[in-house]
Amino acid sequence: MLILEKHIVQSLLDWQTFTAGSGVKANRKSEDIAVISTSNASVLGGMFGLELFESNISLKAKQLPLFLSGRQRLLATARSAVKLLVRALRPATVWLPSYICGVVIDAARETEVRIRFYAVGDSLKIADNHWLAEIQDGDLVIFADYFGFNTWSSHGIEARARGARVVEDACQAMLNRDFSPHSDYIIFSPRKFIGVPDGGILLAGKNTELPDADFPAPPAKWLLQATRASILRSEFDRYGGERSWFKMFQSTEADGPMEPFRMSDLTAAILRIVDWATIKRRRRRNYEFLLSELGELAIFPNLPRHVVPLGFPIRVRNRDRVRRALFNERIYPAVHWEIIDLVPAEFLSSHRLASEIMTLPSDQRYGRDDMKRMVGKLQRYISL
Question: Which of 194, 272, 334, 337 is the most buried (most CB within 10 A)?
Fold first, then answer.
């Protein structure tokens, strides 16, 4: 497996050498020459294609982002970081927000560990403070930075004051400039922001111990399938063709390892040569444009300077009908998340939000024309 990963990494480096000598240029958008995994705009949304790079980029990032510069564990998936912490810390109770991805719930399940939920309202803010009084010393409390936005810091202070370990789920906030100073651990998911086949990162706060680092390699079959899907999506974005990558992606997402495995060498190498500054700039620029056109639908109507959003979440009452219509236009808003049968029905606000929310793609693959096309189609179908 290691030989295969090294071969793929070397192929990426050979591509750079080839383009430097031949003048070959990959399909890309205007001024952002460092990130060439851009879309041909035939499809908006979906998984990222494997990152490729122009020949004039340094193979060493000028400044590594926080998630690569602190004390961390590089894992195959973000969900395995949750599993690793629950096993290492052995809390009596894991507290989860009532609006959360199902794989986080699954990852928190361990023998003799109780899972409890606290209420998150329609605006993705914690609904009340009463549950904090029930936290016990040694509990584990997970807070989510929804779509890049931290709405929970004051609750984190109280949770730590009661003796809990605080975990910041920053899987949707990986590129933010700042994170909560009240977090004992922070979890990141590179696959949500760039084209890598695997990856999860567990970052430790000050004076916080990290679990042991001797992790086995990820399952070969799963990693090969994930890598193949990433390559095929990259080729699709550059040249068009069939979308066989989609079913592969769905399969690898569903089968992502819950057990702690180490990050592949390929992903670890890519993370260190990505032009993060360009990605941040493009994501913020697209979000700001969508705010100017769709501000009345936005769940987060303001964009703080330190936030680099995952996407542009909106609420639409006839969500499923509108989403199907957008699919026909090759626009694929994601749903974060389906929580029926995962979160207790008593959390009405969270379930109501889950039935109306969808995330418009606004990442670095797209430019202003792509955003305009998406806005026009969305406004048309919402008005029907």
Answer: 194
Residues 170-219 pLDDT 10s: 999 999 999 999 999 999 999 999 999 999 999 999 889 999 889 999 99
**Paired residues of 70 in beta bridges:** none
Q: So what's the pLDDT on residue 258?
A: 97
DSSP letters for 88-128: HH--SEEEEESS--HHHHHHH--TT-EEEEE-B-TTSSB--
Q: Which of 269, 367, 368 is nearest to 50 (CA)?
A: 269
**Per residue in 4-33, is it b (16+ CB within 10 Å) or e — as a string?**
ebeebbeebeebbeebeeeeeebebbeebb
The dotted CATH code for 276-382 is 3.90.1150.10
DSSP 8-class letter at 312: E
Mean pLDDT of 266-294: 96
234: exposed, middle or buried (C-beta count within 10 Å: 0-12, 13-18, 19+)? buried
Nearest Cα to Cα of residue 364 among 269, 286, 270, 274: 286
Q: What is the 3-state secondary structure (H, E, C) of 11-67?
A: HHHHHHHHHHHHCCCCCCCCCCCCCCCCCCCCCECCCCCCCCCCCCCCCCCCCCCHH
Q: Which one is predicted more confidently, 158 or 12?
A: 158
Q: What is the pLDDT of residue 22?
A: 37
Question: CA–CA separation, 265 vs 270, rounded Å?
Answer: 9
What's the first-to-final CA gap in the chain, in angstroms?
Answer: 52
CATH of region 1-275, choose from 3.30.70.270, 3.40.640.10, 3.30.70.2390, 3.30.230.80: 3.40.640.10
SS3 283: helix
Tokens 């979160």 belong to 343
Dist CA 138 CA 38 (whole Å) = 45
Token couple for 14? 């050979």
Domain boundaries, the chain: 1-275, 276-382
Q: How far apart are CA 19 and CA 223, in angstroms?
A: 28
Instruction: Please work out, in degrees rounded to the nearest 5, the angle formed at the alpha carbon of residue 238 by the alpha carbons of 60 and 329.
Output: 125
Mean pLDDT of the chain: 89
Contacts of 214 (CB under 8 A, 6+ apart): none
Say which DSSP state 219 is in. P
